[in-house]
Amino acid sequence: MNLTIANARDVPECLDSILGWPEAEWGTDWALSLSKACLETCMGRNFPVVNIGLINGVPVGTCCLVENDLAVRPDLSPWVAGVYVESGSRKLGVGKKLVAYTMSQALALGFHKLFLFVCDEQLQNFYCGLGWTFYCKETFHGNEVYVMSYANKGEVYGSR
Predict the structure, then answer these.
(1) What would the 3-class secondary structure string for the chain be?
(2) Are 146 and 126 in contact (CB under 8 A)?
(3) Could you tell me which CATH class the domain 3-151 is placed in?
(4) CA 103/CA 35 separation, integer angstroms
(5) Chunked in runs of 10, what are the mean pLDDT values of the chain (160 residues)?
(6) pLDDT at 27
(7) Can you tell me the distance from the alpha carbon of 100 to that of 5, in angstroms, rounded to the nearest whole number?
């Protein structure tokens, strides 16, 4: 597997492929948020960040760094969001590498505490394995979600 990770602004030809994923997986609200983040990223801003995982040049996943991903917690920022890997590329470490790469970018941008939310225990366990910890429970669109946090203590993200 030849995985590369690119900023969306460097591979604009991939945007049409990735913009359909969030709506299919999470619904319209998130699709609109990712679309906005992609557009802002492609306009040359350093934040938000939209990363695309590519295997042999074909997009297989995304991971974003955004100001807020959970409207009920506007006090928490920034968020790792939009972590998605196409079903045929799962269990290959793509998600882990995308998250670690995005976390490293957050550190480079001066962010030392990050947040994300998950909807199920399996995903919570995935992030715990990457050094994230449980922060709190919230209700989002009528569903209970688990907010997680990661505080950088001087190590390079993803070096565990």
Answers:
(1) CCEEEEEHHHCHHHHHHHHHHHHHHHCHHHHHHHHHHHHHHHCCCCCCEEEEEEECCEEEEEEEEECCCCCCCCCCCCEEEEEEECHHHCCCCHHHHHHHHHHHHHHHCCCCEEEEEECCHHHHHHHHCCCCEEEEEEEECCEEEEEEEEECCCCCCCCC
(2) no
(3) alpha beta
(4) 21
(5) 90 84 66 65 78 95 91 94 91 95 92 93 92 94 93 58
(6) 67
(7) 11
Quote the tokens at residue 5.
């990770």
pTM: 0.86
Q: pLDDT tens, 47-86?
A: 888 899 999 999 999 999 999 989 899 999 999 998 999 9
Residue appearing with tokens 């801003």: 45
Residues, the chain: 160
Contacts of 113 (CB under 8 A, 6+ apart): 149, 150, 151, 152
In the chain, what are the domain boundaries?
3-151
Site of tokens 């993803």? 158
